[in-house]
Design goal:
By secondary structure, this protein is an alpha/beta fold. The protein has 8 helices and 9 strands.
Length: 215
């Protein structure tokens, strides 16, 4: 079982998604586990404040390190071993891809540090020796969506999460285009047909067509 630990100011923004469908069933089946750590609950500020103006000027607010580090400390204490993977979402991080998902699926504990506003104090990443990761060449308002994306992608490689091993794209002959009934779809006066080869019953030709579509 993989235990995902998420440090986030707004766990409610992704919790419904992670409780639903395939990921929700994986949690219920104890294939994966997800825990949330809100820095507001760990800060020593008597008003529960966790964001401050950035040194050197600039727009917005930055998450101060103390609350985040104390939340991380709690998560790491709960982890099963010292080999916890620590991920710090950053625009200059390594681009997340399927090979990274496969590697992470072999871990027992993964810690996600989700920034918000203008980000997290850079000392957090350095102190925790966390790996910088990016989900794409764009900026989001927070790290919660990247965390949910990684959990979804990683969980697919955990044995038993998917109904069939063949559901993994890399282990089956599939194509980007899939079709189901009806054979002829009539939409706004036009007929849209399923490719004839898929209706032929000729398995060799169907596999050849799928391979061609994957290129």
């Amino acid at each position: 079982m993989i235990h995902f630990h998420i440090i986030s100011l707004f766990p409610e923004s992704i919790e419904p998604y992670l409780k639903a469908s395939i990921i929700g069933r994986a949690i219920a089946a104890k294939k994966i586990k997800i825990s949330y750590y809100d820095p507001k609950k760990f800060t020593r500020d008597k008003y529960g404040r966790v964001d401050r103006r950035p040194y050197g000027g600039g727009p917005g607010m930055v998450l101060e390190p103390d609350g985040v580090l104390r939340a991380a400390q709690k998560a790491l204490r709960r982890a099963q071993g010292k080999a916890t993977e620590k991920i710090f979402f950053a625009t200059d991080g390594a681009l997340f891809d399927e090979s990274m998902a496969k590697r992470l699926a072999k871990k027992k504990d993964i810690l996600f540090i989700c920034g918000h506003y203008e980000g997290v104090d850079a000392r957090v990443q350095k102190i925790l020796k966390a790996k910088k990761v990016s989900v794409g060449p764009y900026v989001l308002t927070g790290g919660e969506l990247p965390a949910a994306t990684l959990i979804d992608a990683i969980s697919r490689f955990v044995p038993g999460v998917l109904g069939k091993a063949e559901s993994l794209e890399a282990s089956r002959v599939s194509s980007p285009d899939v079709y189901t009934r009806p054979e002829v779809l009539e939409w706004k006066g036009k007929k849209h047909r399923v490719p004839r080869v898929l209706l032929s019953g000729h398995h060799a030709k169907i596999e050849e067509w799928k391979k061609g579509r994957r290129k």
